[in-house]
């Protein structure tokens, strides 16, 4: 990326990164308010948790729908509609008179939030290619990865000043802000001649075509399986750190936050090193790092070693996710210019599907052992390596289907 275009690229990465944080903010901000919500509606904890399940389901399904729609209608129109829906659903959640309505509105909220995730990635592919895409996506990941760190803190701050209703009002205001940014700061990046026909059958064939593409499928599975390992880490460490090692909630928050920082470090390694090493080399390094770290986690779990013997390899494992997800996304998207929305949708939904299957397995042996966590992340690392070697194979040497955009076009997405 030329120096001339460096400033606009950073600004665009910041804007698109905010869109990509909609998922973490929508999921995490209201979690501390679960008991209050249960008291407010006089309902069980399981029904309140169902509102989270509905949101995750909306995030997963929405990426498939919104990604395909953006390939047909362009990026800006669907994003505008989604932000209107997101703001409306957030305010509706705040005004819900019954838990069943809250659950329904949470699904809509998650569905609309998915547009921010999938379309922001498609816009990145519209504007950049090759190593420029890698560098830009690493900036996008830097902003996006701040979401899981900031959302619980922001949610706690809001709850300190108001009730759970205030959390959803704040999310509604965020939706209105992003609606304004889409209207006045974001330009269309997919011209009509590069769009695909408005045909549901064709959209399904696009998905099938992507899944039959061995290299795309290999990179998709490598990324998706590795991120599924993060779901296992997220669901398992609260019990492992606090029940097994007796750390306080404050210490747990610090440990959890440090691994969020490692995720950012990993994604930035790819951006910094992309000029010296190919994306495939960086992806392979991340996969081997994940395998070594997961072996160390399993060894610490079996021997019930000191806390640091678990914390250090988990830090490295999460850093490897930052490396592999950034590199694998770039490689998977690079030759999918005409189907960038559909490709980004598959890359976004697969981790949700795999993660939902993996997460419950962490507690299969109870709360007093970390062995299932070690086994699961070791298995995800091994499967990701198999997907890379078995499907991605050697570089085909074929050129991307769409030529890289000119450097001037990179400035047209944001004023």
Automatic annotation (TrEMBL):
It comes from the Bacteria. The keyword ATP-binding does not apply. It is found in: Cell membrane. The chain crosses the membrane at residues 48-67, 79-97, 103-124, 136-155, 161-180, 216-241, 247-270, 282-302, 308-332, 344-365, 371-391. Residues 12-396 form the Major facilitator superfamily (MFS) profile domain. Residues 396-415 are annotated as: Disordered. It is a multi-pass membrane protein. This is Bcr/CflA family efflux transporter.
């Amino acid at each position: 990326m030329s120096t001339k275009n460096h400033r606009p690229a950073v600004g665009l990465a910041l804007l698109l990164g905010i869109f990509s944080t909609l998922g973490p903010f929508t999921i995490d901000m209201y979690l501390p308010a679960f008991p209050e919500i249960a008291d407010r509606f006089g309902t069980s904890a399981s029904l309140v948790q169902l509102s989270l399940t509905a949101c995750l389901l909306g995030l997963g399904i929405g990426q498939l729908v919104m990604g395909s729609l953006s390939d047909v209608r362009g990026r800006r129109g669907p994003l505008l509609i989604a932000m209107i829906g997101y703001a409306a659903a957030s305010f509706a959640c705040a005004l819900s008179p019954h838990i069943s309505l809250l659950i329904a509105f949470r699904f809509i909220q998650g569905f609309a939030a998915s547009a921010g995730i999938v379309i922001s990635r498609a816009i990145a592919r519209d504007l950049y290619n090759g190593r420029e895409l890698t560098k830009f996506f690493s900036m996008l990941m830097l902003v996006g990865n701040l979401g899981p760190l900031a959302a619980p803190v922001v949610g706690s701050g809001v709850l300190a000043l108001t009730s759970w209703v205030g959390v959803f009002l704040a999310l509604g205001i965020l939706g209105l802000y992003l609606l304004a940014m889409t209207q006045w700061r974001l330009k269309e990046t997919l011209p009509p001649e590069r769009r695909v026909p408005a045909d549901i059958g064709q959209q399904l064939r696009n998905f099938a075509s992507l899944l039959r593409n061995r290299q795309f499928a290999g990179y998709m599975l490598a990324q998706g399986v590795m991120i599924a390992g993060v779901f296992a880490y997220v669901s398992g460490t609260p019990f492992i750190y606090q029940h097994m090692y007796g750390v306080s909630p404050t210490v747990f928050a610090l440990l959890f936050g440090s691994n969020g920082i490692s995720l950012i470090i990993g994604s930035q390694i790819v951006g910094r090193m992309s000029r010296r090493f190919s994306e495939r080399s960086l992806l392979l390094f991340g996969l081997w790092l994940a395998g070594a770290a997961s072996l160390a986690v399993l060894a610490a779990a079996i021997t019930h070693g000191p806390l640091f013997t678990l914390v250090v390899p988990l830090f490295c494992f999460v850093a490897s996710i930052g490396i592999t997800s950034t590199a694998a996304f770039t490689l998977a998207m690079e030759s999918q210019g005409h189907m960038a929305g559909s490709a980004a949708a598959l890359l976004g939904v697969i981790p949700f599907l795999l993660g939902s299957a993996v997460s419950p397995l962490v507690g299969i042996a109870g709360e007093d052992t970390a062995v299932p966590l070690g086994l699961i992340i070791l298995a995800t690392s091994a499967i990701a390596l198999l997907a890379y070697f078995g499907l991605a194979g050697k570089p085909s040497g074929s050129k991307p289907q769409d030529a890289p955009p000119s450097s001037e076009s990179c400035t047209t997405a944001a004023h």
